[in-house]
Amino acid sequence: MKQLFLEFILMAIFIIISGTYLSKFGDIIADKSGLGQAFIGGILIAMATSLPELVTSISSALVGAPDIAVGNAFGSNTFNLVILAFADLLQGKGPLLLRVNYSHILSGLVGVLLSALVVFSLILSHFMNFNLSIFGVGVDSITLLITYIISVRMIYRYDQKNPLDPDDPVKEEDPNPDYTLNKALMGFAICAVVIVFSGYRLTITADQISTLTGIDQSFIGSIMVAAATSLPELVATISAVKIGAYNMAVGNVFGSNIFNMTVIFFADLFYRQGVLLQDAKIVHILTATVGIVMATIILIGLFYRSRRSFMWMGWDAIAAATVYFAGVYLLFQLGLNVI
């Protein structure tokens, strides 16, 4: 048992380090290729830091662990949102959301929409026996992917028409003169390979821990695996806050949450025992609902823009963090009882 936990921690460390450098190389690639800041934070960096979730969920599907695959996607979303609360604490006095643009409301709402679609699919699958599939992939998973593609295009076009405020930090000089585009691409690829291997081993180890401890896969996937695979988002968000790139920090979180929902499609694609959401437990609705409530609180805070704070944190961040820890407790209690 001790060896399993040590391997889990080691693989998590590999993912943290590789995910951090993956984010860095993704930023360099975006700079060298001339892409804008909105695309960097909301799309490219978000996809880069979400690669651990993608690899881990696919690996879970391959070994026949649907609850780890789905729990990882939803758990990562909730963990990402609580990162904003931590970032609010670090950035200094006053709420973090006062410092970012209204445009993030769009990407936040898209994340809520995708999560709600999965909740709706889980309800249909478990209560109405709806499991329509095409070539073994659920229609609900295909719908998620199509909605994601349409939404990303819409977000990109909106950001082009409504660029970030000119007082946001903009990279006027090349911050990475020692890196060429090809060198950054090579580093990105190496980090991706390390993440693929670590994510696969992390999944197998998590499945074995679940079997030996009797703790449900839903809890393992939604808390342990999700926290491990979301650490690159934590590092990237904190790094952005430290340099005052608040829009990039929030864009990274919302963008990652959008991409994490497409992870379910790719996991379903590699899941051969049936339809992924049909075989996943209904308990994932709890994790999804916690994420939706947290996102809604943050979006209300972003729209309302209250200046009130407590211990340097905005009340929206405090409320979101409270919902997260309450959800973890409830999920743990369910995980001990769900067979």
TrEMBL record:
Superkingdom assignment: Bacteria
GO function terms (MF aspect): calcium channel activity; calcium, potassium:sodium antiporter activity
Entry-linked InterPro entries: K/Na/Ca-exchanger (IPR004481), NaCa_Exmemb (IPR004837), NCX_ion-bd_dom_sf (IPR044880)
GO cellular-component term (any): plasma membrane
Organism of provenance: Halanaerobium saccharolyticum
Entry keyword set: Membrane, Transmembrane, Transmembrane helix
Presence of the UniProt keyword Membrane in the record: yes
Localisation: Membrane
One of the GO biological process terms: intracellular calcium ion homeostasis
Record flagged with keyword Transmembrane: yes
Residues spanning the membrane: 6-26, 38-62, 68-90, 102-124, 130-151, 181-200, 220-241, 253-271, 283-303, 310-332
Pfam families (UniProt xref): Na_Ca_ex (PF01699)
UniProt domain Sodium/calcium exchanger membrane region: residue ranges: 6-154, 184-332
Membrane topology of this protein: Multi-pass membrane protein
Name of this protein: Cation:H+ antiporter
Primary location recorded for the protein, binned into one broad class: membrane
